[in-house]
Each structure stands twice: as structure tokens, then as C-alpha cells.
Design a protein that fits this description.
single chain; 451 residues; alpha/beta; four-stranded mixed beta sheet; 21 helices; globular
């Protein structure tokens, strides 16, 4: 059923917006300092995007696409929007995995300055939609036949109580291993399919001065490695018990003990001093030959392409060890804040643009991801084709990324990610202690869900 223009929607409107803001005020002590930081530099954070600033109007968009490839990819959308006489006004917040952007978004909503559009990934759609803050996009999704066009997993993700609440751009594969082809050729190495083969590469590179695995100590990057190990350990079913069901017993399982031992053991493959650094720096250390491999979402492949490098020439790509049959995924998505519906027509135009086959193809080719469409894109490279084939096998082979908000709420995700970093950096903490901490987090979530 096609929805009529909003204010008839019983789940939105000024009254419910006031309730939503009241719910968010619990975040005030954390959020307001960030808002104060943003108040002055807000205009400088807006990139000078293509497009008119005149009669067509504009949309303020908050996001964390700030690297070279990310900017190039989102400019595909910006340029198409400009053709509709709509200007994209940037609020770009640096920081991997969008951790800073999430806090800034809450700050802006608290201050009644919500952007018209925001990058919003994963299960948090439901939280914002249930507060009555998101514009429902049924007017675009239903006539556009989105349900039949896109993968069922993505369709389910952007639906809330039967209404479409986000516009999807692409699907990333988090379980990606990139490697330096010159290093592999020089030392006669083959891309590792298992962690045992990975260990053999580490052994062969001893004494060469080359770091086997480029890695950052940033919490989200360590947790990305951790969730790859969890998927490799026992496949998507166990992974979902951990991070979707948040089953306390799953965290106390012997398999989690093995995952944590493997994570700590990987320190021998990393730089002697693992420090916090952006993922782009990690990628540069791999392609420069300082390191042989990195494990990162396939946006890293898009970044290498933006630097002028080509798959199977300067670098190669394979699934992370032990995960070749699976797809650890996250999605790029845009959500629209309803406000007083003054921007609804422009927001719906933007949503329509994101699902254009041409935009899906070009955006994802640059970004390193794959389109959300069930029909394969003929312009995908070898790595993207493998990602598309694996994802298209269906939910039994898919695992929603914990780190990138696909599996659980932000509070639980942040708690798990913090524990992973704490465990990795503090050698006095045992694997068993960390298992118990994970289980305690899961039990707390279970109690909250039942309240």
C-alpha cells in the first residue's frame, strides 16, 4: 500500500518528537560536549559539494565517509542529486566505524538540529523509527518495487513494522584479506585459506623485516579482527548465537576460549608496537611492502583503487582465513529525519537516486562494495563478484557485523568492542576472565530485553 503524505502518520509528529528528545536526554552528559565542539566548526565540516544553492533547496547530510574513495563514491550520489536541483550540504565526521558520528547525531537531535539525512547503519534503524523520528519511504519503495529488486536480507533490515525507513547504497564484506602481491611473489607465498596456512606465512616471513599482518590498536579495528575469528571458528550459526542472540552460554563455550587465544596469538604477526592509527594508514603500510597482509572490510580495496592500484597487480584479495564460504556483512544506508516534512519531496528524491541501477553500480565500484540488487552488476571486479556470489547464497551463509551495527544495539556493541580492546592490550587479563565479562554483558542485555 502506498502511503499518503505524512502528517497523517500516527507514529510521528511534534508530540512524539518531544517524547523522542526526552528519551535521548539521558545521553546529554556525553552528547553535549560533542555538540559544543560541532557548533563552531559546523560550516567548515561541510564540503563544498557540487550542486546549486538556489531555488531547488538543499539537504544537510551527516555521515562518516571521509577517505578518498569514500568521498569519490558519495559524490556519485551528490552529483545525481544536483541534477535534480538539490544541494547536498555536508556534515562529515571523521572516525572509523562511525563511532564519533553516532554521538554527534544524538547531540544534534537533542539540540533540535537533526539533519535532514544521516548515514545510519544496522539495527539502530528500529530504535530511531520507534521514536517516530524517521521519514517512511514507502512512497518511493512501493512503486519502485524495492522488495523484489534487492536482497531479502537488506529488505528486512530497512523495514520497521512494515514501513521502509532507510535507503540502501551497498553491501560491504568485512571478512576480506588484502595482501601485497610483490611480497607474496618474492617469498613464493600463496593467499591463506585457513589460519594454519596464515601461521605458515608468518613463519616464512620471520627475519625478512616484513610485518606479516598490518594492524591498528583502535578498538573497532581490533574488534573487526575478533569478529572475523569468531566467524572462522564455527560459521554463521555460532556467530549469531554470540552477537545476535547474545547467548551467555555461547560466550562461555570452549570455542570462544579458542577465539580469544587465537586473537592474542596473532600479536606475533603484527608490528612490535601495535598503536592506534586510522585504517587508511594500515592500508598504506600493506601496499608499501612494510606489511604483507591486512584484514579489513572491502572498503579498503576501494581505497587502494582510489590510490591508483589495481586488484591482482599491486594487491590481491581473498576472504579472511576460514571464512571463504561466508559473508560477514555491513551495509551503507541513508535514513531521513521527518521533522516537519518540509523536506519530504527532496528526501524521497534522494532515496529514489540511491536505488537507481546506474548509481548502485558506480557507487559500489568506487567504494569496494557490492550493489544491494539481486541482479549481478557486470562491472564488478573479481573480488566483488566473489562477494556477490557468497552473499547471494542467503542467510545461512551470512553473518551480520557486530562492529558495524548489523548484529545488536550500540550499547551492547560498544561494551563488547571495549572488552576486546582491553583484553588484547592488557596481557594480565586472561581469556577466561574475558569470557566471563562477555557473558555478563549478554546476561545484562537479556534482562533488559525481558523488562
Amino acid at each position: 500500500m502506498i502511503k499518503n503524505n505524512r502528517p497523517a502518520n500516527a507514529r510521528t509528529g511534534p508530540a512524539l518528537t518531544r517524547v523522542a528528545v526526552a528519551c535521548l536526554r539521558a545521553l546529554l552528559p556525553v552528547a553535549m560536549p560533542l555538540l559544543m565542539l560541532m557548533t563552531g566548526p559546523m560550516t567548515t565540516a561541510r564540503a563544498q559539494s557540487p550542486g546549486p544553492s538556489g531555488a531547488g533547496g538543499s539537504l544537510q547530510v551527516l555521515h562518516w565517509w571521509t577517505s578518498a574513495s569514500e568521498r569519490q563514491a558519495i559524490n556519485v550520489v551528490v552529483n545525481q542529486l544536483a541534477r535534480q536541483d538539490i544541494q547536498w550540504r555536508d556534515v562529515a565526521i571523521p572516525g572509523g566505524a562511525g563511532m564519533g558520528a553516532a554521538k554527534v547525531l544524538k547531540s544534534m537531535v537533542l539540540a533540535n538540529r537533526a539533519p535532514e539525512v544521516t548515514q545510519l547503519n544496522g539495527v539502530v534503524f528500529a530504535e530511531w523509527a520507534d521514536l517516530g523520528l524517521l521519514l517512511e519511504l514507502d512512497n518511493v519503495a512501493v512503486p519502485g518495487n524495492w522488495e523484489k529488486q534487492m536482497f531479502p536480507t537488506v529488505w528486512s533490515l530497512i523495514n520497521n513494522h512494515g514501513h521502509v525507513v532507510a535507503a540502501p547504497l551497498g553491501i560491504h564484506r568485512i571478512n576480506s584479506l588484502l595482501y601485497n602481491t610483490a611480497v607474496f611473489k618474492r617469498y613464493n607465498l600463496s593467499p591463506p585459506r585457513t589460519w594454519e596456512e596464515f601461521d605458515q606465512i608468518v613463519e616464512k616471513l620471520k627475519g625478512t623485516g616484513i610485518v606479516p599482518l598490518a594492524q591498528s590498536a583502535e578498538a573497532w579495528q581490533l574488534a573487526t579482527l575478533f569478529e572475523n575469528l569468531a566467524l572462522a571458528e564455527s560459521g554463521p550459526a555460532y556467530y549469531r548465537r554470540l552477537f545476535v542472540d547474545m547467548n551467555p552460554a555461547a560466550f562461555l563455550d570452549a570455542r570462544m576460549l579458542h577465539i580469544l587465544k587465537r586473537l592474542r596469538g596473532l600479536a606475533v604477526a603484527m608490528p612490535q608496537s601495535v598503536r592506534e592509527r586510522p585504517w587508511t594508514e594500515v592500508a598504506r603500510s600493506m601496499v608499501s611492502g612494510e606489511a604483507a597482509m591486512m584484514i579489513m572490510g572491502d572498503w579498503a580495496r576501494g581505497e587502494l583503487n582510489a590510490w591508483g592500484m589495481v586488484v591482482d597487480q599491486q594487491f590481491g584479495c581473498v576472504p579472511a582465513p576460514g571464512t571463504g564460504d561466508y559473508h560477514l556483512y555491513s551495509t551503507d544506508t541513508l535514513a531521513m529525519f521527518a521533522g516537519n516534512y518540509a523536506h519530504q519531496a527532496m528526501q524521497e528524491t534522494l532515496a529514489q537516486i540511491t536505488m537507481s541501477p546506474a548509481v548502485q553500480s558506480e557507487y559500489n565500484r568506487i567504494k569496494g562494495s557490492i550493489p544491494v540488487l539481486r541482479t549481478p552488476d557486470p562491472h564488478m571486479d573479481r573480488c566483488a563478484r566473489d562477494s556477490w556470489r557468497t552473499f547471494s547464497k542467503g542467510p545461512a551463509f551470512q553473518a551480520p557485523s557486530l562492529v558495524h551495527r548489523m548484529a545488536t544495539d550500540d550499547t551492547t556493541k560498544d561494551a563488547i568492542v571495549a572488552e576486546v580492546q582491553r583484553f588484547f592490550l592488557d596481557r594480565t587479563i586472561t581469556e577466561e576472565q574475558t569470557q566471563k565479562r562477555f557473558a555478563a554483558i549478554a546476561r545484562t542485555l537479556s534482562r533488559n530485553r525481558n523488562d
